[in-house]
Amino acid sequence: MSLPAIRLRPREATPSLAKGDPVPPATRALLESILPIAAHRFGVGINDILRNCRQPEKVRARAFVAWALRLPRPPLSSPAIAALFGERDHTGMIYLHEKAIRLRLADAEFSAACERLGRAFATYEETHDGDTRH
């Protein structure tokens, strides 16, 4: 079985940070807060994280973002994360999350970055205790 040619061409990610997208504002704000952290931590640009690129440092940053988007309670689903990354297939987000888990086990720097972000999320959730008013 062969795939249609359209599926074989790499597609540029169209980040869902534009007005009028179907992503809820709070979810978009979460992505917008995590992207600069990942870009700075891994030394890549925000657009590099959103693009479909296989360079290792960019994949590490993208895996970090995919992992981080699963932190809030309830966690974002793989299809929701895929929508944030510009309509990518949700199975790619499952792969990135699995890669993040492998990196957390094997890479001390990646694990430390995840731990710091996890503590920040826990602190935020404790101080806001479900209160969505700001």
Overview of this structure, please?
This protein has helices spanning 5-8, 25-42, 46-50, 56-68, 78-84, 90-106, 108-128. The chain has one domain: Chromosomal Replication Initiator Protein Dnaa, Chain: A (Orthogonal Bundle). Helix content is 63%, strand content 0%.
CA-CA gap between termini = 53 Å
Specify the biggest β-sheet: none
Name of the CATH architecture: Orthogonal Bundle
Overall number of strands: 0
Could you say how many structural domains there are in total? 1
Share of helical residues = 55-70%
Query: Nearest-angstrom radius of gyration?
Result: 15 Å
Helix count from the secondary structure assignment: 7
Shape: globular
The CATH superfamily bears the name DnaA protein, C-terminal DNA-binding domain
Order of helices and strands: HHHHHHH
Q: Beta-strand level of the residues, as a percent range? A: under 5%
CATH class: Mainly Alpha
Contiguous low-pLDDT stretches (5 residues minimum) are 1-18
Briefly characterize the structure.
This protein has 134 residues and is mainly alpha-helical. The chain is built from 7 helices and no strands. It has a single domain (35-128), classed as Chromosomal Replication Initiator Protein Dnaa, Chain: A (Orthogonal Bundle), CATH 1.10.1750.10.
Keyphrases for this structure?
single chain, about 130 residues, mainly alpha, Chromosomal Replication Initiator Protein Dnaa, Chain: A, 7 helices, globular, disordered N terminus
List the helices and strands and how they pair.
Layout: H1 5-8, H2 25-42, H3 46-50, H4 56-68, H5 78-84, H6 90-106, H7 108-128
